[in-house]
Write a structure and sequence with these properties.
alpha+beta, Alpha-Beta Plaits, three-stranded antiparallel β-sheet, 20 helices, globular, binds flavin-adenine dinucleotide
Length: 446
């Protein structure tokens, strides 16, 4: 809990968060620090560092905004979703759940799944409901790094489409958001959104312009070292040769694609590139219990079900979380911008049963395990427990696997093989693992 601590205790705790897996790199501390905190080593560990002394007021503000150590789900749900009709511990609050996609084929194909977020931002801009959108693109000057910015045109919004499976720190640009003259829509992954909600709670001026909050589902993200390792496997040693980096290029589910100055192009199916996850995962993702971006107005995931996967083209799972999100969705459907078909809560949970199991059971078991070893853990104001014994055992195996595969020798070893070969092997192993652990994962899931 955050109340009652002295400034020096808060300052000490902030340092502890920054130096541990508690830090989710949301960027709020950097954005609120007036230059006193900077991100260091973005192409490696990517962590915030205090470079100038913080004054007491800054410590207070940053400590409150930090979502790494503390975010009370039940309390913030009560605060921000008092009138929302439905709730499930896995999905969070919602009005409706459905499958949909953008009607515009270009927006759909250019996006991560169905192009829902991109289309929503363009619709809001076109209808004058916002003047800009806080989104994330690959930095045009440093094309291997993601950067948050305020998009004010349709072209800029399209440029920022697609998922970036690398560390992003959207809230670094809180000062630009504060200085912006007009209304904003904001897009972020759950830890970033949680911090925005904490800032809204105290009416911080940095978030005063935000009218809408959108966000993708969030399984995990990777360190940039994953891209470096991929390049090394293709005998490319210098990552600054990258001219374009896509994580989901082309038709859904898309390919990881790296374009180089030499005109060489490296392309790997998304499902094959997933082999990088256990080796280069940002450890904080393993302690994040929010898959569905529960504190947005509207959140979007991939429609992972054979019926949609077979059809390609891109389908999204959409959750509207309050009247604001629902009204916007209705308007876009009526205006012919989006297709949407409602599904049940059970169908939605089944579609993402693997992800929910990872976040709503696995993460809580991992948190308890860390606590047992005396390591700092996040406090979410609630805890899910009492899973079947088999599920605990499975998690211990997974945690051990992440521990081993994240080491330097394991990374070197896997780098000896071609990514195509490892990717195919990984995809097969994952399917086998999913099938064999299906019963354990599904036991008491609802
Ligand atoms: C790191 C990450 C992990 C994900 N894990 C899952 C998962 O496990 N299961 C699942 O079903 N879906 C997951 N998603 C969501 C999925 O990939 C799509 O983003 C989602 O379906 C939205 O699709 P869309 O076509 O509407 O998005 P688009 O129209 O392509 O818009 C995506 C929006 O998200 C913003 N964005 C992209 N990446 C980031 C980022 N890293 N940080 C902040 N903003 C970002 C973009 O700037 C853009 O505004 C993940 C997304 C990310 C970024």
């Amino acid at each position: 809990m955050e109340s009652g601590n002295s400034i020096s205790a808060k300052s000490k705790e902030l340092q502890q968060i920054m130096n541990s897996h508690l830090c989710n790199r949301c960027g709020s501390c950097v954005g609120l620090s007036e230059g006193a905190i900077e991100f260091i080593d973005r192409e490696g560990k990517y962590y915030p560092k205090i470079v100038k002394a913080l004054h007491d007021e800054q410590v207070e503000k940053i400590y409150h905004a930090c979502s790494g150590k503390y975010f009370d789900f039940p309390r913030y749900r009560e605060l921000f979703y008092p009138d929302t009709t439905n709730f499930h511990t896995y999905t969070g609050p919602y009005e409706k759940i459905g499958i949909g996609h953008a009607v515009d084929p270009d927006l759909r194909i250019n996006a991560a799944s169905g192009g829902i977020i991109t289309t929503s931002l363009i619709y809001l801009l076109k209808t004058g409901k916002i003047d800009g959108a806080v989104t994330t693109r690959m930095n045009p000057k440093v094309p291997w790094q993601a950067e948050a910015f305020i998009a004010t045109t349709r072209e800029e919004i399209i440029e920022s489409a697609q998922s970036k499976y690398c560390i992003t720190s959207v809230n670094e640009i809180l000062p630009q958001m504060e200085a912006f003259k007009g209304k904003l829509a904001y897009v972020g992954i759950p830890p970033q959104v949680q911090s925005i909600r904490k800032l809204q709670e105290v009416n911080d001026p940095s978030v005063k312009n935000i009218e809408y909050i959108f966000g993708p589902f969030y399984g995990n993200t990777l360190h940039f070292t994953s891209v470096k390792a991929l390049l090394r496997s293709y005998k490319v040693k210098d990552f600054t040769q990258i001219t374009k980096l896509y994580f989901r290029h082309g038709e859904w589910p898309g390919n990881m694609r790296v374009e180089l100055k030499s005109d060489k192009v490296i392309e790997l199916k998304k499902f094959h590139a997933n082999y990088l996850i256990p080796f280069y995962i940002l450890k904080n993702s393993l302690f994040c219990t929010d898959l569905a971006n529960e504190f947005t107005d509207l959140s979007v995931g991939d429609a992972w079900a054979p019926v949609y996967e077979e059809r390609g083209k891109g389908f999204s799972l959409i959750l509207t979380r309050n009247n604001k999100g629902q009204n916007l969705l209705n308007e876009m459907i009526n205006a012919g911008w989006l297709n949407f078909e409602e599904i049940t809560e059970n169908e939605a949970i089944s579609m993402h049963s693997h992800g929910y199991d990872l976040k709503k059971r696995g993460a809580f078991i991992r948190i308890r395990l860390r606590k047992l070893f005396g390591k700092p853990v996040p406090d979410y104001g609630y805890e899910l427990k009492d899973f079947p014994l088999s599920r605990y055992l499975m998690e211990y195996i997974i945690s051990f696997m992440f521990l081993v595969l994240g080491t330097w020798p394991a990374r070197r070893f896997i780098g000896l093989f071609s990514p195509e070969f490892v990717g195919k092997f990984f995809e097969k192993a994952r399917t086998l693992w999913k099938k064999s652990s299906y019963k354990i994962k599904r036991a008491d899931l609802h």
